[in-house]
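INFO  loader      accepted 1 record
INFO  loader      residues=508
INFO  predictor   begin
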Amino acid sequence: MSMYKVLIVDDEPIVREGLEWIIEWEKYNYQIVDTAENGKEGLEKIRLLQPDLVVTDIRMPEINGIEMVRQARKEGFDCECIILSGHSDFTYAQEAIELGMLSYLLKPIDEDELIRSLSKISEEIKKKKQIEEYQDYSLSSLVKTYIIRGQYNDNLEVFLSYDFYQLIGCFFHTSEIDQDQIKDIMKRVLPKNTFIFSHSNALFALVCDETVTVVNHLVSLLEKKINQCQSKSVLVLSERAASVKELRRLYNEIKELENKQYLFPQLAILSHQILADEAEKKNSTFVLDKSELRANLLQATISGQAAQMTTYLEQLFHYYQKNTWNVNMIKADLSNLCSYYFETIEEELDKPLKESEKNKVVSVIWSNKSLYDTFDFLKEVFKDMGRMFYAKNEKKDVVEDIIQITYKQYDEDLTLQYLGKKLNYSHSYLGKKFKAQKQKSYRTFLDEVRIEKAKKLLREGQYLIYEISDRVGYTNADYFYKKFKKLVGMSPKSYQKQYIDVKEGDEV
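INFO  predictor   done
INFO  writer      dumping tokens
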């Protein structure tokens, strides 16, 4: 059983301190939560702490004890009271009785008399709480019946005569929770005009007549309190409604927002405004469309570019978040995407993938509760696919690929850096592998290919020497001249003249 909260109000410090130590309050199921030194401060603390019992002096500056209690009652704070007085004053006693105060004690306080008063008050508080709990439970049941099942009761509009309503849903990631503990937290954090009920593995709180700013603040506070003592949960906040008959709509909003946990598992609070803010962040950082992403991802997988694969997967993840797709649509889309990639990879590798492995990927996509978890899994799947292509490419003779590219593109700006990007290898690896296999550097081989092509063009005699230089890939004619002379043993002009002289001699 929780302790009953006690507030002590007296303008004499020695009395306040004496009351705290005169008895063992906890022994009688009471806990002193605070003290105040006058009626004005006492009223403020009644509003803030909502104590079950106020022990107050009558004669105090600014506001006396009777007036303080009377004002608190007007404001709806139905706490029990013990009035203390240094004088036996019948008028004060009468006023206290009219206000429904159960005890009027004279100073100095008699310990036994105080204990008897606390015992009598304890019974009254217990009865009052039982009645309140029953009333709250009855009304909360009516609210739940309408919100969850759609069964409307005319009594709802009789009891819920408020101007505004907002619904809070608290959903848990595990069934091993103490819902009673969470309910107690909700009761402490949320205002009195709140109706709390449970449904399935969730708790709901209907907050009435509070501003949006206040409710947002309370939800943030509630999230911190709940996650301090329970496993991770998510709080979902609806928009406002101005009519009892709109409560069913608020519940449907909550359920729709709850599904967004799959897209935004990092968020502890979900609301339309929060999701709009998240979507705005994605809009500022993301521009590619999905078809372009899918094509880029496939190409990165085939070429084994792990960093690029990760980047494209992250962009696809943000695409789903930005467009707030339905959960089942996302899972179906990802399943189709993977099936398409599997077929393409099987064709590229000319080798079937294991059906059990393909089925496992699809199964994980559909069973995961979080888009984050799904994409973490898919990153590993695509890395495995990339490794398959890498293994296939390793078996090929990359030097032969270099030679074929060189014969086709000798007139372009060929470098090992360019070949490395094209063949998905580091340029230093290609340089070492080429030299080890051909006993010459790639640059020497490229010069030999170009000079052979130049010799052919010189023999044909259709182009000037500087034109031939450009046609075989040398932008600098002087450099071409030096390379030609080094490899052939004579200048391009001499080679051409010699070939023409030999040809004319043969004709004679």
